[in-house]
Amino acid sequence: MKIKITGVGSYIPEIKVANIDFDKHVFLNDDGSPFGYPNEVVIGKFKSITGIEQRRYAAPEQCSSDLAFLASQKAIENAGIDPETIDYIIFAHNFGDVKYGTNQSDMIPSLATRVKHKLQIKNPKCVAYDILFGCPGWIEGVLQANAFIKSGMAKRCLVIGSETLSRVVDDHDRDSMIYSDGAGATIIEASDDETGLLSYESATFAYDEAGYLFFGKSYNPDLDPDIKYIKMYGRKIYEFALSQVPAAMKSCLDQSGLGIDDVKKILIHQANEKMDEAIIHRFYKLYGKSVPKDIMPMSIHELGNSSVATVPTLFDLLIRGKIENQEIHKGDVIIFASVGAGMNVNAFVYRY
Fold first, then answer.
1. Percentage helix, strand, coil, to 5, in the chain?
2. Cis, bond preceding 60 (omega within 30 deg of 0)
3. pLDDT the model gives residue 1
4. pTM of this prediction?
5. What is the DSSP track for 280-321?
6. Pick from 66, 139, 58: which is nearest to 101 by CA?
């Protein structure tokens, strides 16, 4: 028995924030000193490395669970199911609900419980819980749904990835331009045909790598040091990702019994265009192959990095024909992969 995705939905916030909108920001080094060049240069370098041209922010009245609810509604409708038949709601996020104008996290009750309430599901045996797994959280949620269904504990799961990273960024940190808001949701069920999840890999590297992403004070020394923001050691994450993600993808593909030429698409966490391209190049190099044209759909240029939401949102856009020069067909083999805080790495091979 395999599991497959029977419904997909995403919510992309309407507020667009272009790179030029950061022109008046006061960006600082981590020691509080100013950069020695103007924001025009900062933004130009940022665009050339990340590929991001604009990103989306949630409306002031929306929190992460609101975005998740809207994406879940679409996934349920796409699957054509009765929400009362959902056995588990698995909600991947990192910072909970963060109200506009603050950066305080609110996770009680769990965001999964909030989505269940918003969906008006009465069935008490629909179990709702959250997972904190960094950017790979949605993929990890799919793997947990796989375990529940294969063990007989569930027949149908709703797996969500949602985040409002715009609420937890330090405006004085140029990395704040990377982050965005959004949500993706999927219905997971058993598959009795050849489609579905074929193999997977998941790992946590914490011996040396646990602190690569962390909560830290603002780069502005005049701000309250007890108020924390998302921070990262970008170079360390880049090197870690290039070392570990291609290896995880290869192990996963080899377990599936398929060959590299069987892969039609690779949906990878939208963290950084150059990093993702380097990961894919190194992955194909492990097989002595060149990277095929159009193998890796991208949404980061317009949507930025919405953490746990990037992969399910990318999948939704792909199957709905919303990514230029990209299409997918029944029977195509896809590799899903992600990397993030933990440091966590995971991947799965999937036949569409």
1. 35, 30, 35
2. no
3. 84
4. 0.96
5. HHHHHHTTT-PPPTT-S---HHHH-B-GGGHHHHHHHHHHTT
6. 58
